[in-house]
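User: What would this chain look like folded?
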Amino acid sequence: MSDAIEEVPVLRFRSGRATEEEDPIAREEPLEIRLGGVSLAVVMRTPGHDRELATGFLVTERVVERSSDVESVRHCGRGGEPGAEDNVIQAVLAPGVDVDLDRLRRNLFASSSCGLCGKATIENALATAPPLDDPTWIPAALLPRLAAALEAGQEAFARTGGLHGAALFSSDGELAVVREDVGRHNAVDKVVGWALEQDRVPLADHVLMVSGRISYEIVQKALAARIPLVAAVSAPTSLAVALAERAGIALVGFLRGDAFNVYGHRDRVRP
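Assistant: Here's the prediction, encoded as structure tokens.
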């Protein structure tokens, strides 16, 4: 359990009053999955149950069909990268189990630029998109309206219960667009694509609202689009908070009614 949780500073708002506290949030770290010494993919995950994650990955990618196909699965070190000791796991198949690695790697989405520890991952993100130089801030009383507007705009979710949503607002709370998708990253991409077609990118002085949690990838997309504030009805992860702090982005989590938490660049939300 301790591997899965990290304490971070939070500015906690309750009925218009703010208090500084420590908040437990889910950790997010990259994990490189190797097969017989060959790197297959780097996935973002909460540490813990890594063996199950790796073997489940091999099953869903149709590399193995049964437990006897796997000889061993273990963590292995990564020299020269502090913090990455537990972020590489290697599977070895049983003798006689063959796999077409070329075909497998062609079918996998693997980010070769992703680091193997949180610090390297953040550095890679900032190398392609520098921290924001944007004075945008919003009053705390505005935030509950954003969550309500996103919920009202999720027409497909209201019917199916199976879609994520993302919405873009101006810093004064005006709704620009709502998009839905089965993947929350896809919903965010649709919102940013809409803004690009409207010639509104970079999105300084805007707020992104998402229906799920705030992961590292969501913050990375906001940084690339130059969005200074990301809000969600659910929790942020540790790597999302760490990137937000470096990138100058505020994260609003657990936005439910007039209660919410502010992480990262917390000065962007004021009582």
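The helical segments are 50-60, 101-106, 118-128, 143-153, 155-160, 184-197, 216-225, 238-247. If you want, I can go into more detail on any region.
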